[in-house]
Amino acid sequence: MRKQLTLACSLFILAAGISSCRPYAGLEFYSRTPRFNRNHHSHVMLITHRPQRNHIVLGEVWIKSNPRMSRRSVEKKLRKKAARMGADAVVITKDKYSRDRVPYRRYRRGTMVYRERLVGGVAIRFR
Questions:
Q1: What's the predicted TM-score (pTM) here?
Q2: 103 vs 106: CA distance, rounded Å
Q3: CATH number of the domain located at residue range(s) 23-126 in this protein
Q4: Three-state secondary-structure class, residue 37
Q5: Using CA atoms, how far apart are residues 35 and 60, in angstroms rounded to an integer?
Q6: Measured between alpha carbons, how far is 78 from 85 in angstroms, rounded to an integer?
Q7: For each successive 10 residues of the chain (127 residues), what is the average pLDDT?
Q8: 29 and 86 in contact (C-beta within 8 Å)?
Q9: 8 A C-beta contact, residue 82 and residue 90
Q10: How buried is 46 (Cβ within 10 angstroms: 0-12 exposed, 13-18 middle, 19+ buried)?
């Protein structure tokens, strides 16, 4: 009986730990979109408005940054995710901070509280 209880508790703790892990960056293809080969991330543009050129919408890319990440590292991560999809550009649609404050632990300096930033956009490929 004690072994079963210990096993059930450890499985519950493991499941709770796995479910609390959220990806800090990701991508999602839209259904029924064509697939392309990967690009190099340096060829992917970041733009803030819908382009006038003909294009195909491939999917979404996003990143949740922490306070140690610079603007360049956030942009590079978005470009890398879009390049995996074969995109030529990312149209930034979301750049906001969460209302909740998140603790961030730094070694030797204690705990810092910050607002989580979410940057996301739509990956497109020019025709």
A1: 0.70
A2: 10
A3: 3.30.110.70
A4: coil
A5: 14
A6: 11
A7: 61 50 75 88 93 94 84 91 95 82 63 76 94
A8: no
A9: yes
A10: middle
